[in-house]
Amino acid sequence: MTDTPPDRLSTDPSSPYFDQPALERGIGIRFKGVERKDVEEYDRPAGWIRVALGKKVDRHGRPLTLKLNGEVEAWFERPAASDAGEGDAEG
Q1: What CA–CA distance (Å, rounded) separates 71 from 45?
Q2: pLDDT per residue rounded down to tens, the chain (91 residues)
Q3: Basic and acidic residues bias located where (predicted)?
Q4: Is this model's pTM higher than 0.85 or not?
Q5: For the chain, what is the largest distance between any 2 Cα atoms, rounded to a whole number of angstroms?
Q6: Cα–Cα distance measured from residue 9 to residue 16, given in angstroms and rounded to the nearest whole number
Q7: CA angle in degrees (0–180, nearest 5) for 69-18-9
Q8: Which residues contact 29 (CB under 8 A, 6 or more apart)?
Q9: Which residues are CB-contacts of 58 (< 8 A; sequence separation ≥ 6)?
């Protein structure tokens, strides 16, 4: 796995952009210069994020989302599992 998050990622398991290993590492999102923790899906090249619309859900129980346009930055919050063990076992 690389140090660059995917260009598009979703937290919905039924989405084709769902990536469990990337989500387990934690994804930080900065939207229009403000760090956000409520992002359901993002697309960096297209410049948009989807955020939950309060506690409202659709008839299938999935959260209703609102699409916001603007500059999107993404980064991994934790190193990859293969990088995490390097240097820790030396004594």
Answers
A1: 9
A2: 568 899 999 999 999 999 999 999 999 999 999 999 999 999 999 999 999 999 999 999 988 999 999 999 999 998 877 655 555 544 4
A3: 1-10
A4: no
A5: 56
A6: 9
A7: 30
A8: 35, 36, 37, 39, 42, 49, 72, 73, 74
A9: 64
